[in-house]
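Title: Request for sanity check on Alpha/Beta hydrolase protein prediction

Description:
We are preparing a figure and want to confirm that the structure record we downloaded matches what your pipeline produces today. Could someone re-run it with the sequence below and paste the raw structure tokens into this thread? We only need the token string, no images.
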Amino acid sequence: MSFDTIPKEATLKPEEFTLKVPQQEVDHFYQLLKLSPLAPETYENTRTDPNQFGVNHEWMSEAKKHWETGYDWRKREEYINSFPQYKVRIKDDDGYVFDIHFAALFSQKQNAAPIAFLHGWPGSFLEFLSIMDIARNQYSAQDLPYHIIVPSLPGYTLSSDPPLDKDFTVEDIARITDKLMTGLGFKHYIGQGGDVGSYTCRPLALYPACKAVHLNFNMMVKPLNANGEVSAFEEKGLERAHDFDERASAYAFEHGSRPATIGFALAASPLALFAWISEKFITWTDTTPPLDQILDSVTLYWFTKSFPRCIYIYRQYHGARTENGVGPHSNPKYKFKKPFGYSYFPLEIAPMPLSWVKTSGNLVWHREHKSGGHFAAMEKPELLWQDVEDFVKQVW
């Protein structure tokens, strides 16, 4: 691979990584999947709109059959392994050691802009493979204007767990991310994120090496100092945000208030895990991603036992809450002083009006899209990639 030249200034020592789940685990997975029963048909699960009561029986039945007989995990591994991947050991300030996985396209160009793409839940580094694919076909390693770094956040998929004996928050994720980026030899870098990744970008911007941030998610409470009208298009987005809060956010309170219980429940059956996660890929998107792409995410979560390990972040905002009862995008402590950009996708779970977003920091770039949802990197990789490129050209 031509994109695997680690900067000579790196102080960390990443080791190349290849994803290969042991065959015994693959066989066990298929056995569990085959033995996992479907729920009986009910009034609720025979409705056609998943936004009404959740995933329906037909979707689950057809997906289970395809997962068992048509889906080939080994072929999906081949595709994933076509991207350079690494694991690196990072020692935290308090002595904890994290093994952090990341995919990367390293540039050989002087002054290439390092970008950390940060995923959320129920995502993983897989969300950004389409963008990486566009970039590696668009540029050679010699003329790629960016270093593209896509970490697996602590507790997610191929990275190690948060500590067992202490709390762990987005501030901790940001600290590990900064250690990763500076340890790879980057004096400055740009953060990009949606969902948990966007939450992480707020404290990440407080680190000197983080030069700017681009977000495609900025969920916040209505600011008192918002100036400017809210367009009719944005009003529809606010209606969607209200609907999400009223009818679709119960999962978040379960994650935040009873993470241990739901962790055990979904670790017991791959079909249960699929039902819980696939609902989000259906209802949080403009167009439902291909089934195989959803199965990639769920299957990787299953093999890496991710679900119980990765939902810790919900306790911070849906359990004990933050000190002032709001998330980081409404927290004055994390108001961006550095330049930041915002991409508006109308089928996001909570698309925020531009006049609101402007109150959360030094907004220097924005773009409104007419389609796309929560998983923008998967749904609209060309659009999000163009947004990031345009933003980086302005601030780097």
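Thanks, this matches our download. The mean pLDDT is 96.
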